[in-house]
Amino acid sequence: MTHRNVPQPSPDRMVDPAGKPMVMEIVPGQPPLVALTAAVWARAVGAPMLYCAFVDESRLTVEEFADGTVRHVPIDPDGIDEDWRELQRHVEEHLAEVLDGSGVPWTFRYLAGRPDRALTHLARAVDASAFVVGTRAPGPGARMREVLDGSVALRLSNHQHRPVLVVPLEVVDWKAATWS
């Protein structure tokens, strides 16, 4: 196996957050806290745009465009190909309820493939300064999915140079925790 020289995080690769867009990952059913946190941080750094991105892992990216959008197709070529349009409409409506009035311009991107790769492509395309992601929803199913799929926040933080702001969606009550 040959060793590839991969550019590493360093001061010269840092993106100044002032006046730069931010990218937020959207997961259906996630609490509004993630979008609200993204809007607060975007407003604080004077972001001209908050890119809200849903990554559909049941679709493949066919082509990536310079504006961060993608052309995508279903993994199953025999499957129904219209479900994604309904999901896109639903997510956009939910985002409008949460973000309209936040004082931050936002736009929605429907992406495909592996979430960390799709979000990284979008961030590069729009020269974003940072990512905002939520932790997994609580529960044993979510923990198992994280074990199998891995954490998007962890993969982002290990595979590109932009900071990742992780919004906690459930915390441990350390006072009530028992240590056995």
Structure, briefly:
This protein has five helices and seven strands. It is α/β, with parallel strands linked by helices and 180 residues long.
Please report the first level of CATH classification, the CATH class: Alpha Beta
**Quick one: overall form?**
globular
**Named CATH topology:** Rossmann fold
Number of helices: 5
**Mean of residue pLDDT?**
83
Question: How would you describe this protein?
Answer:
- The chain is built from 5 helices and 7 strands.
- With 180 residues, the protein is an alpha/beta fold.
- It has a single domain, classed as HUPs (Rossmann fold), CATH 3.40.50.
- It has a 5-stranded parallel β-sheet, with helices on both faces.
- The mean pLDDT is 83.
Descriptive key words:
single chain, 180 residues, alpha/beta, Rossmann fold, five-stranded parallel beta sheet, two-stranded antiparallel ribbon, 33% helix, globular
Layout of strands and helices, then pairs:
Blueprint: E1 22-26, H1 33-44, E2 50-56, E3 59-64, E4 70-74, H2 83-99, E5 106-112, H3 115-126, E6 130-134, H4 140-149, H5 152-159, E7 164-167
Parallel strand pairs: 1-2, 1-6, 2-5, 6-7
Antiparallel strand pairs: 3-4
